Amino acid sequence: MSALDQYVDHIRRLSSDNKYQDLAQSLLGSNVFHKNIQHIETILTTFALPEHTLCALGALHTIARAPSIPDFDRYLTQMETFIQTCSPEQVQYLPHFICDICHVITERLRSQNRARSGIPFLFHALELVRREPGQLLSIHSDLYQLCLLAQWFEPALHYLETDIIEINRENGRFDVKYLLLYYYYGGMIYACVKQYDRAMNFFENVLTIPANVTSLIMIEAYKKYILVKLILITTLSTTTNATSSSLAALPSYTSRSVVQAIRSLCTTYTELANLFNTNDLQHYQEFIHRHQEQFQRDKNLGLVKQTIHSFIRHSIQQLTKTFLTVSLNDLAQRVKLRSAQEAEKYLLDMIENGQIFASINKKDGMVIFHGCPEKFDANAMILKLQEETEKCMTAERQLRELEKDLALSKTYIQRTLALAHDRSKMLL
Amino acid sequence: MATSFTSNKMLMLQNRLLTSGDNVSIDLYKEIMIEYLLAMKTFVWENLPPQFQVDIEFQQLYKICGALQNKNYSNFYALIRDFQFSSTMSSSIEQLQERVTLKNLQLIENAYKSISFDDIQSIFGITSKVARQFCEKRGWQKDSSDLFALPCRSAVTVASNSDITKLVDMVCFSLKKISLEVHC
């Protein structure tokens, strides 16, 4: 009996005896499959699903890790069948095998411009491996990447709408790169569907991950963070005390190395944010025109163009702090628009989005600015308050559970005991 | 915290798209397109398989989507009026037209103290005759020249005391619970 046959018998026996932990260790520690890759397809057919899920997964993982996959479409079909017929309990012993396979498939589909065909597969793989809704896997970033390439966002939004509270270590193989990419791609998806507040939140998460060195992902995230913040400025000014002077500023808990890297590598974007304060539309547009090539290279030109509209809206919003009434013509002149009709279009947009409160009197061509009419006494406001209170209570409950898990973790207890020991030594 | 993005119907349609594999029918895409338009979101034409992009009804839907995105309402109504939609699509298109008209009427009420019937036609695509009918239905006044409508806002319902009491009780109970846990 050859070494391969012996090995296959051994793992099949372990699988039949439900010794999945031993089987997982055996698959991790052995390279018999790698040495006999030419026979893998034949061996795979002997592993019935779902009984021998781990054995089949080991074989499929070997094919994925080979220098090249001979028949990729056939392999993709095999994986789709595996995902639908395997045992989810057995997969949990080697989740990083599924993740590795997903990375290889994603990369191959991306290079072949077939992003769309991988989305259902990754969607089902995620459902198979994740243990609870708020758990992060490296497969998330693969799915989001393909969704962005295919411009099909709903499968990603299904996961993005649930906040992450836990990371699946994937047997120690989870890399921080996947955490950065989760929030980076997630921010891009939210920017595509014009949920800019969520996009800004996601980009900020990328920037504020504790770091001793700066990742390129953080640099790109900062560029988009600034642009999204500029697009959102009119909404931010309405709801918070955010001013245009704080546009380029990062949260105070951002790592020092990240702040320094951004200062030296993203000067164009920081300067763009500072120009927002000048209230000079012509100067702003000239700056964008001068650096158009760079924005195009960074693939941010679309967002940059949207900041021009935001600039105009912000200028109009600033006028509401000075005037109670103003004519449409005067408003158009002050904001440097072409005509009163264009000013009216901007006003309508802003009134519709709740960015200003105003009434247009077309009879005499005047605009009257009001204060916020919300008296917080309508049913909708009560429901909103109730919703927000429930969200706070859920977040508080989750934080308490995280705190409890942290306090009971072995690493934390060892560290605090070591610290206490050092302190008592110093006192002596 | 995350907020909901998709309606239940959209989730159901997306689920069908995910599980259909390569056998996706053009009608499924049309339903998704309409759902996007009803939710006032932009449908991405590039997501559609090329063989569906030649469908004339779909091309018309795409033009309607473009008109809505550019807020070119005259074009929006013209595109609907000048095309014979299939029986599966016509009720959804009618629903879309009603939603857009209602949304614009609400915007006129919120944004204008006075607006000419000509402006209602040029900005919102609603003909002068239809605008005058809405004027009467929604209780708007007209000025003495009969050229300008004077929109008035619809009333906002105020909460009853019992709702506020329930909310206050819930918040107080939660705060009491948190402070007890802290003391323990």
Description:
- The complex is a heterodimer of chains A (428) and B (184).
- In chain A, 68% of the residues lie in helices and 4% in strands.
- With 428 residues, chain A is mostly helical.
- Among the domains of chain A are: 124 residues, no CATH class; 54 residues, Arc Repressor Mutant, subunit A (Orthogonal Bundle); 40 residues.
- A three-stranded antiparallel sheet of chain A has the order 3-5-4.
- In chain A, a hairpin with a 4-residue loop joins strand 4 and strand 5.
- In chain A, helix 10 runs parallel beside helix 12.
- Chain A is elongated and about 95 Å long.
- Chain A starts with a helix and ends with a helix.
- The mean pLDDT of chain A is 89.
- Chain B is mainly alpha-helical and 184 residues long.
- The N terminus of chain B is likely disordered.
- The longest helix of chain B is centred in the middle third of the chain and has 25 residues.
- In chain B, a hairpin with a 5-residue loop joins strand 2 and strand 3.
- Classes of the chains: A mainly alpha (428), B mainly alpha (184).
- Chains A and B meet through helix 9, helix 11, helix 21, strand 4 and helix 22 of A and helix 1, helix 6, strand 1 and helix 9 of B.
- Strand 4 of chain A pairs parallel with strand 1 of chain B, so a sheet runs across the interface.
Core attributes:
heterodimer, A: 428 residues, mainly alpha, Arc Repressor Mutant, subunit A, three-stranded antiparallel beta sheet, two-stranded parallel ribbon, 23 helices, 4% strand, B: 184 residues, 9 helices, flat, disordered N terminus, signalosome (chain B), PCI_dom (chain B), COP9 signalosome complex subunit 8 (chain B), nucleus (chain B)
CA-based shape of chain A = elongated
Q: How much of the residues of chain A is beta strand, in percent?
A: under 5%
Query: How many helical elements of chain B?
Result: 9
Please tally the helical runs of chain A, counting DSSP H or I stretches of 4 or more residues: 23
Uncertain regions of chain B: pLDDT < 50 for 5+ in a row?
1-6
End-to-end span of chain B in angstroms? 29 Å
Largest sheet of chain B: 3 strands, antiparallel
Q: Can you give the helix content of chain A as a percent range?
A: 55-70%
Oligomer: heterodimer
Backbone structural class of chain B: mainly alpha
Side by side, the strands of the main sheet of chain A go 3-5-4
The backbone outline of chain B, from C-alpha atoms, is flat
Low-confidence stretches of chain A: none
**Order of helix and strand elements from N to C terminus of chain B:** HHHHHHEHHEEH
Structural class of chain A: mainly alpha
Q: Write down how many β-strands of chain A occur, each being a DSSP E stretch of 2 or more residues.
A: 5
Largest interface (C-beta under 8 Å): A-B, 44 and 40 residues
* Nearest-integer average pLDDT of chain B: 76
